[in-house]
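Before the break, one more example. Copy the sequence into your notebook; we will annotate it together after we see the structure.
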Amino acid sequence: QTRLTTGLGFSGAYAYSPDSSSIAYISDYNLWKINADGSGAVLLADLENNVENPHFSPDGTKIIFIYEGKIWQMDADGSNQVDLGILEYTERARFAPDGSKIVFSSNSEIYTANSDGTNVTKIIDEDVVQYELNIPEYSPDGAKLLMECRGIGPNSGINICTSNADGTGFAPLLGNILERQSPVWSPDSSAVGLRM
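Here is what the structure looks like once it is written out:
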């Protein structure tokens, strides 16, 4: 093990760049970037409040992150920071593998938008599927979504759900087996890892 950072207040939220050369991370509620060997720490966003969950675009040129419950985007060097003007109450957003879209949850429902924040579209409705939905993520091949879902009523409990990338084909993974969370895709999109 090698300790890469020495600052206080590391939140545990971090993201590697696509080429694995650098890491974006949160410390003291601000967004930093550091080389993968721990050198060259640079403050990217000093917003003096609740900054969360950075994620690089597939080409490594952009970073999206959550600030005060809204999706922001900036260049990977910290310049051109902008609120994308999308819905509030978002915990995390993720780029599609081709970089054209982002997927996110807001008020327990799943949305997509173009990577510049336009064309916001609700693709999974909580009332229709009877699940509260959170932290969606594209499969590496871009064909599917994976998310945490908490059932409403008799399905209550945390589970893992999947859908097609357009929100169709929604289904709980492994039926109604409960208390499964923190899902991740395998690199080839064929399998899912989770915590029980």
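The first helix runs from residue 126 to 129. The two ends are 25 Å apart (CA to CA). Try to locate both features in your own notes.
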